[in-house]
Each structure stands twice: as structure tokens, then as C-alpha cells.
Amino acid sequence: MKNFTNLSPIKNTKPIALYSSEQIYTMEQAWFAQGYDSFGLMQQAAWQMAQQIELLYEQKCLNANHSANTNVYYRTERLRRVSVWVGKGNNGGDGWLIAYYLQQAGWQVEVVTVGFDVNDFDTRTQSAISNKKDHNNDRITDATKALQIALSANCHYQRFEEIHSSHNESEKNESEKMALLADIYIDALFGIGLDRAPEGVYKEAISAFNRTTQQQNALAVAVDIPSGLVASTGAVFDRIAVQADVTLCLIARKFGLHTKDGADYSGDIIDIPLIPYQTAKPHKISDKNTKQNTIEAFEPVAILLMAAHSMKPRRQNSYKGSYGHALIIGGNRVDGSQGMGGAAILSASSTMATGAGKITVACHEAFHGALLTSLPDAMTINLHDADGLKALIEQVSVVAIGMGLGRDEKAKMLFIDYIQAAIAHEKSIVIDADGLYQLASLQMDSHELVTELREHSINHRVCLTPHSGEAARLLDQKISEVESDRLRAIKQCAAVYGGDWVLKGAGSLVLEQKSGRARVYVCDAGNAGMATAGMGDILSGVIAGLLAQQDLAAESYSLSQAVLIHGFAGDVLVNQNSDCHSENRLMIGQRGLQAQDMPAAIRHVMQLMIVE
Ligand SMILES: NC(=O)C1=CN([C@@H]2O[C@H](COP(=O)(O)OP(=O)(O)OC[C@H]3O[C@@H](n4cnc5c(N)ncnc54)[C@H](O)[C@@H]3O)[C@@H](O)[C@H]2O)[C@@H](O)CC1
Ligand SMILES: Nc1ncnc2c1ncn2[C@@H]1O[C@H](COP(=O)(O)OP(=O)(O)O)[C@@H](O)[C@H]1O
């Protein structure tokens, strides 16, 4: 569940760099190549995590005392119980050592092993393992060393397979409950090495972990990343992943914690950096290509967007012309259908809320009345008045096209005409919704406009805003292909079409191209209440509204700024609900949040961003 504690769009926080699993492995290797010991790093990791777990436990007691209306905090003297669930990789190794350190600190420790054979704990097998060399590193594995340390300290363990062997469901649940009583549960089943869907006993173990923590109302802490969540993509296979309250993120922040399923499973994230990875030197490898890759690996795959850029107040001596003229093209009505006027109206309303000086909406004439009723500030023009509209394009500052434009041939011709005019008059362009549909069709036809648009984007702002379905069509891929690696998809979109991109959804990705270099961001703002019709139209309006305002500094009308403002506005509306103590206050929450609620919240966020 998302934490809405800091809704100020301006924060004094350092940007957080996000990395893929491959990059983290490269950082570790670079560190070891400098002579540092891998098991020493695991011990450091586990020791620091054990200390964090103690702090988390104290915090939990403190909260429990507060919710029991006790004014005085007292440290509970009863035995602290921890259940550590370990897998066979190094993540499990971390788990064994956490168990060892917590036992030393006086905790009652229960390790639950998953995927281990009975022989794995046999002391004779252990000494045989100790003598066996790991074929890669010429030493026993770190995870095995960790297991040996915990076993020689008599850390109590159980095999999950045995706890779970009962055939009857209720017996199974009961035996789990009895065997696994604890205050804190540690998930050390899989870390960044997860490379396929957890199946069989692993799937069962993840479900049992979630079930148990929920039944016990206990704290679930994930080591490095919740088991089941893929660090490089944020994907979860078949919804099988540990539901963590807290994730103790080792070495560097993983990209997958923040996008797609990441936020649903990670809980609060606490960084345990361990090594100075940003300054760590790539190790020397004679092969030139490999060396090149290693150096590049330290560039983050993305930056977490958490804070907006501040804006200066407007100059007193200014007028509407100082803040640009936005043209919204959409809201078509295909003969006989109800039409899509609302899309253009919503987009126009957020363009105004963002602060554009003037706005004209080119929509089907059938919607002019409705538009003027809800937004009398807007001017109108008939969407099908091609000559009038092309002449108008010359005068405006930005053209946003596509929201309810239609997907038929007639709409395609309009799209071509208006984009050509916008390119000819060197305008900033925003393309959304049906505009993206039409662009994909033009790409399939190998239409020259696609190349013209790409060339235009080199020196002018072109912003394209697909969700996964639209991106899939633009790339001629399946939606599942886009969803399986959204980072790859947004980069492909930018490579094919040029321009700046947002790939919408939970943890929207933003790609901005500056001086021939693409930079990717993950938006930390926004919530599931925004998964309603019309929210994308609102976003295109915010982008157009910022682009129109020529008094803003360049970073203040960037695509990432627009995506953040949109997300913050959604969060402000939802937060209003959780803060509400009076039954008489108007409540807007995630369920029932409407796109038309957004303009007021956008104005609120824009106001918070002004710094004198
Ligand atoms: N010494 C080091 O390099 C350090 C490693 N650390 C820990 O090591 C973790 C990474 O360790 P590993 O690379 O061993 O990765 P994991 O501990 O995630 O385990 C990977 C192993 O699980 C198997 N596996 C993957 N998906 C599976 C599935 N669905 N079902 C069954 N088996 C599956 C893989 O084949 C591999 O053998 C990090 O997340 C972190 O917790 C930390 O201790 C920091 C230091
Ligand atoms: N779960 C979510 N978390 C964060 N943002 C979301 C979520 N669901 C939707 N949004 C945001 O709301 C907007 C929805 O856009 P879109 O799908 O194009 O809607 P529509 O086509 O109905 O206008 C996007 O900006 C998206 O990122």
C-alpha cells in the first residue's frame, strides 16, 4: 500500500538512482575485484539488516503501545521471536546470518528452509561440502558458509516441506500456524537471482509466508527484494510474491521496486548501501567489449522521480499572451456514434488548470455547447475545418492531438494534416490516445510523416504518452511483451519515433532525450485511484499546459515535471480521504476518483510549487 506521508511536490531529497539485477551483480564483482571478500560483504549485509530488524521491532512495539492508548512507551520484556525463511541462493545466505546475529542478540529464532534436502543439514554432509570446491570461485559458496555458521550456533530450523506435508488443508494451516509463530517474518527465499516463476514448493512457501504474516498480523520484512518480484522489471509471475511491509534493499536501489508490481509488494524501502558503488571502479578485463559493458553498468537504468522543480511567481507586468496558447485537437464524433467529446474537454480543463494563458479546443461541433458550459474560458473551432485549423496552428504555442480524435480514415487524414502543419510551423507537439493509434498506422504504412516527426523532435518538443496497449501497437508487439519489460519498450519507442515518452501505468516511466542522450525516470507519484477513464486525457492537458508557458525554466516544462504534477494531483485527492477525521468533510478516495476532480488538485499542486 502506498504511503502518502509526504505530498509536497518540492522536496529536499537527492534523486534516487535505480539499477537492474545485472548491474548490481557487476557492482559486486567490481568490489570483489578490488580485493574485498564476498563472504565479508554478506556478513556486513546480514549484520546491518539484523540491526534494522531490531529497530523495526521496537518501532512496531511503539506503534502498538500508541494504538493501545498508552502514553508511556515501555520496552516489552517478553521474548522476541523471528521466523526467517531461507532459500538456497545467497539471499538465503543472508537469511541464515540474520538468524545467527538475531539469536546472538537474544531473539528466539526459527529458520524455515525451502528447497533444502534433509542431507543439507547433516554435519557429515556439511564437512563434505566444506571440502568441496565451488567450481567458479575455488571455494565453498557463501550461502553454505552462512548455513554452517547458523547451524553451529544451534539456530533452530524446520524444513517447510515437512511443516507443509499434511494432506488436509485445515491441518496444513494449523500446523503452519503452530510451527511458525513469530513477531517478525523475514523473507530470504529469493533475491535478485530469481529468473523464473516460483513453482511447486517455492510457490507454496510464498503463499504460506503471506498467509502466516497476515494471520499473525506480524511484520513481513524482505531481504533485498520481496521473493517473486523481478528486480530488473518490476514484474511478478502469476501474482506469486511475498507481500512485504518493509524491504531492506542491499547495495543499490532496484528498478523493479518502483514500477509495475513493485509498489504493491515492497512496502517501505530501507536502503543498506554496503559498498560505494557509484565510485567503485570497474574491474580490469582484457577483453575491450566486456570492459566497455562493465563501465556502462554503473549508469543507473533510471532515476526515481520524487520531487518537482520549483517555479517562480509570475511577473506582475504580464498578460494572457505571456503564458502561451494551447490548441487541443480531439473530441470527434464518428457518424452515428455518441462520440468522444469528453476526452478533449478533460484535456482542455487540465491545460487551463496548469496555467496556459489561452486555449482553443478543436472538437466536433456537436460538443461545442458542452465544452463551453463546463469550460467557458476556452475558444472553439470545428475539428473538421481543416483550413481554419491549419491557419490557427501557425499562431499557437503547442498542439496536443489525439484525445478522442477517432480511429477511422477521416480522422487519420486530419491527423496527418494537423501534424504536418505543426511541424511546418515548428510547434511543440503532444500526441496521445487516438493520435498514437494513427501514428502506429502510419508507421505500418511506412508513411513519411513518421520520419518527419522524428526529425522535428530533434530540435522541438514532441511528447508521446502511450499506455502499454498503445505502446504495443506502436511497436507492433504484444501487450504482454511490452509489459514484460517496460524499460525496453519505452527505449524502443524513442528509438523508432524520436521525442520524449511516458509509458503510463503504476510507476509510469518517462524518457527524455537531451543532446542525443536518453534519460529514463520512474514516477513515484500517482495511485490506483487514477486507473479511471479520462486520466490520460488529463495528463496530456498538463503536458500541453506546461509547454505553453514560455516564462517557465526549461526543467519546469519537462515531460517528467508534467507526469509528477499529474501524479501528485491524484495523490492529493486520495490523501484528503485518509486525513479526514470529520464525517462532514467531503471525501474523495481511490474508488470513485474521477478525471474531472483533477483540475482543482492540479491547481493546488501548481501553487505548492511556487517558490519566491
Ligand atoms: N556475496 C554477495 O555477492 C552478496 C549477495 N547478497 C545477496 O545475494 C542475493 C543474490 O544471490 P543469488 O545470486 O544467489 O540469488 P538468489 O538468492 O535470488 O537465488 C538464486 C538461485 O535461485 C534459483 N532460482 C531462481 N529462480 C527460481 C525459481 N523460481 N524457483 C527455484 N529456484 C530459482 C537460481 O537458479 C539460483 O540458483 C541478493 O539478492 C542479496 O540478498 C548480499 O548478501 C550482498 C552480498
Ligand atoms: N495504478 C496507478 N498508479 C499510478 N498511476 C496510475 C495508475 N493507474 C493509472 N494511472 C495514471 O493515470 C493515467 C491513465 O491514463 P490512460 O490509461 O491513458 O487513461 P485514459 O485513456 O482513460 O485517459 C496515466 O497517467 C497513468 O499513469
UniProtKB/TrEMBL annotation:
Domain YjeF C-terminal as annotated: residue spans: 303-609
Sequence ranges assigned to domain YjeF N-terminal in this UniProt record: 24-282
One Pfam family per UniProt: Carb_kinase
Residues annotated for AMP binding in this entry: K504, G505, A506, G507, S508, G536
Cofactor(s) required, per the database record: K(+); Mg(2+)
Molecular function per GO: ADP-dependent NAD(P)H-hydrate dehydratase activity; ATP binding; kinase activity; metal ion binding; NAD(P)HX epimerase activity
Cofactor note: Binds 1 potassium ion per subunit.
Domain of life (superkingdom): Bacteria
Binding site for (6S)-NADPHX: 90-94, 191-197, 202, 224, 343, 404, 467, 537
Record carries keyword Hydrolase: no
Keyword Nucleotide-binding belongs to the record: yes
NCBIfam families registered for this protein in UniProt: yjeF_cterm, yjeF_nterm
Listed PANTHER family: ATP-DEPENDENT (S)-NAD(P)H-HYDRATE DEHYDRATASE, ATP-DEPENDENT (S)-NAD(P)H-HYDRATE DEHYDRATASE FAMILY MEMBER
Subunit structure and binding partners: Homotetramer.
Name of the protein: Multifunctional fusion protein
